[in-house]
Amino acid sequence: MADSTGAPLGTGDLESVYQCLRGALQPASQKPAEAALEELASRPGFCSCLVEIIKSSDADESSRWLASVHLKNTVNKSWRTRRDDSGLSKSEKEYLQPKLIELLGERDKKVIAQVNVIFSKIARFDFPTHWPSLFSDVFGTLGPKKTPEAAYRVYLVLQHVLKELSTKRLPADQKLFAEVTSQLYEPFWQQWCADSQQIVESLKDGLDRVESDAQLAATLQRWLVLLKAVRRMLAFGFPSDARTLEVSPTVSQALPVMLNLLQSFLPHTPKNSAIEFQKLLGQGMTKLVKCLSGLQEIHPWAYCQSGSLIPCLQTLTQEFVGGSCAGNDLCEGVVLHGGLLIRNVLDCKSYRGYGSPLSMTDNCKTQEDQLKNLAEAVKPAVAGFFKGGQAQALAQAIIEKGFKLSAADLLEWSTMPEAFYHQFDTAAQTTENMRGVMEALFVSLLKGYRELLGPTVMSALETVSSRCPVGVVPTDQAEIGGIPGTVLEKEAVYHAVAVGSYDLYDYVNFSSWYRSTLVQELNNKNPKLWPLRRQAAILAGAWVSELKDEDRTVAYRGLAGLLSEADLCLKLTAVSVLRLLIDDWAFQEKNFVEFAGPVLESLAQVLQSAEDLETQIKVFGLVNVIVERMGDEVKPLAGGLVQLLPRVWNQGEGQSLLRMQVLTAYQHLLNAIGAECPATFPWLVPAIAYSIDVDQPESLVLLEDGLNLWLVALRNTTETQGGVLLDLFPHVARIMERSTGELWVCMQILSSCVLLGGIPFISKFAAKIASQFSALIGDIRDAAYRVISPTMENILRVAPAEGAMLLKGPLVKLTKVLLMPSGDAGVAMGANTIVFSAVTVVFSRVIMWNAMFLVEALQEAANSGEFGGTDGLKVFFSFLDLWLEQFDAIASETARKLSAAALSNLLPLPFPGILERLDVIFANLTTVCGELEDGLDNEKKLDGFSSYGYDFSSTIGGNSTSMDGAIVLSENAQPEADRKRVLHENDPINTAKISTCLKQKLEEAARVHGDNLTKAFNQLDPAIKNTIERIVKSQKPG
């Protein structure tokens, strides 16, 4: 379909491009056509061809639209030069600019929508540097005959351009947008005011008179576009007075005009969405209130200076409490954004004398004083407004209208209980829906005027409780959706007490109320009282801190019953509340033991019936919390969980978030059952293998949890049954090839594999382990050496000979890293104490096994040219000099003891260089002896499983603050703790005394060096010489 030579496209290729577009619209030829278009998009001239097709009157409508979409995508991708893409040429851009201007006359709405976005993207990249005349060129399309339709299209494209430019937040870009605003604001504002006046005059005749006026509808449509542009310029074209404390006269003048216009619109509430004018009027009213709300956040002091703050609050409160917009789909946004504006005023930090960072100038103290004075001036007015009865009116309206379940809500509950629950569960997390706004506003009102509204809420609670006694179904009340109206009123007040729990603390004796009323509500199974039953459970979760131990037991029983109901909304409510109770700091396992089994069974049933992923994740999240918080108490329930978790895993195919929950739950389960975990291996091992297989698409999400589960399993497994877990080790190498992001857990896994598998494991995977360390050394950050060194040391402790042979190559590379120049400084890498102090224990372990091994390994590497012609023995002594120089960088007492013992082992080496450094070696040895041996008779006891302390796994290199709780708990798993203890007890360094080692090695050195040792010893500093003699004499004859 297309030429693949890469030559520029010209007019002769228009037909080919057009046919590709047509083919992409046909199912039969869609894929090859899209592939051809993708190839064409990389060739010069593609955008020019698309523009010509869009302009062509002969092209069909769908192809023109698709051409505009491809043009938008290509411009967004290639208009700006990138590192890997040279983008469009300068000549093609210059050719396209006037062609794009011609497209502004386009009448197809779908095409012009794409063209508007194209202009906004080009403006972001090119204005003003490469297209300084952008705005004048767009305005120039109006011509002498300025038709309303043409003006609308110009304003629309400029609104998109302004929107794009306003999102650039660099100071230079903000300054540029301010300059653009200074040029465009006045004409836009004047036109908007003129259109506003025309609309208001027309509305005086009533909606019925203007609903068929097409010209007025077009004016209203243009007015909407102008409002968006004006709002953006007011918001981002002038500095925020919350920061500068300097009110912009332009903003101050605009606010009263907008508020007056809103007041003119409100009496004419649209009701018929089928009529275009009414539909546009509803959108306009919503957009106008949204504009006022947004400007209040950015320019709070402009509201005060213009005298608009209190009138705006009065207008919106009146509409909120008793207006006609509530419940009206066409203009419900007026109530929503009006509520947000009222909440913004209540929470406005500027009005309280603090908040947004002020301008960083020398007169900062003056600004702080000015802010306090401004705040003191506005506080009485705001407080007077809300204390004048408006706070109570708002709170009452929120409870009666916002919190009360409607007939539509109850219908959704009865037909789609799962969707109903999620809608109300997430409402409080957002202010994009009406219920979320209502809850946020109610909380802000309580926070600001607690003393005023606390008694009001309690009075409402008493009133509804007397009208609807506990356990009684009112029969003399009209029903809504099958529920008595009084029950719904009571449920709304209950919800208010739940939402305002923090601020109503001093007004509600919750423990007494819970026992006398809410427990009965929670256990009442009458369907007509379900709203109260649901709300009683929510109250228990909201007031969890007030529940005594005996109250919790009653709550668990009631929630377990709620969980066994058929209604999915009630089930999920119980799930949410149970999580709040169990995840609370005051949770005690003993109070929940009798309910754990039934609750987990009910949760398993929910998981089997639920189809919504959000439901499955929420339910399984509770399973995780129960398993984690119950600890050893969950062991009797392990059998059921072992059956449940694999079933959920299989049902969750393609749902990675759910499978993550399964892996996390299994971690806690393995910690609970401990050494019995091999019973789970038939499912567990394949699940781990799948999660950590980098070739599986889900590994991007499951990898971390899969590795954590593997580590927990290794730590809880006995030696006789852990072979299948060890066989997974080749995955580690592939993971580390991709990224070192999981370095810590991979090193922990390798350490656990070494402890579990011992010499057979090391021998089997020696090549992979060696290559893994070799790949890491020199390619990781300094701190990462503290992650890999303990694992290397563990290998040497478990199998000294096999480990040394395995680590021969990594040791050579590690020596090169330590001795290589460190960049611009040109000094030895040994100056980096982080690296040296981390790896010195590895070298010490090798030397403790065989001092000559390291020398021979370095000599062999030097003979192969690895050190650039330097002799291997010289490399060894360079390393030794670095070791002696940086000895004090070793902080751990156990590591210092190990290093001192290793230095003693070097004394018998048959090299004169050892004697040349005798003074420094002895100085370090005597220092360690003084630290660890009291008077050379009693050695200080060191408790530790490694040179890094008792258990290096949680302290060295690991990001312990972000580790999962199951990983932390698994560090105390008995099987691995036993393996560490045996290794520790069999480690000779733990029982050896440095003074004894020194005497033994001096005797060996005397046989090797003869009189040269005596001569070198006599040349020592007298203090060091005397100390060494005292150490030798203090040791009993062998």
Notes on the protein architecture:
With 1038 residues, the protein is an all-alpha fold. 44% of the residues are buried. It is globular. The model is unreliable at 1-5, 822-831 and 943-962 (pLDDT under 50). Strand 3 and strand 4 (938-939) form a beta hairpin. It is built from 51 helices and four strands. It has a two-stranded antiparallel ribbon. Strands 3-4 form a two-stranded antiparallel ribbon. Helix 1 (14-24) packs across helix 2 (30-41), helix 4 (61-78) runs parallel beside helix 6 and helix 9 runs parallel beside helix 13 (249-265). The termini are far apart.
In short:
With 1038 residues, this protein is mainly alpha-helical. It is built from 51 helices and 4 strands.
List keywords for this structure.
disordered N terminus, globular, mainly alpha, 4 strands, two-stranded antiparallel ribbon, 1038 residues, 70% helix
Largest sheet: 2 strands, antiparallel
**Share in helix:** 55-70%
Average pLDDT figure: 87
Beta-strand segment tally: 4
How much of the sequence lies in strands comes to under 5%
Instruction: Please tally the helical runs, counting DSSP H or I stretches of 4 or more residues.
Output: 51
Shape: globular
End-to-end Cα distance: 92 Å
**Low-pLDDT segments, ≥5 res:** 1-5, 822-831, 943-962
Radius of gyration: 38 Å
Global structural class: mainly alpha
Q: Biggest sheet: strands side by side, in what order? A: 1-2
Oligomer: single chain
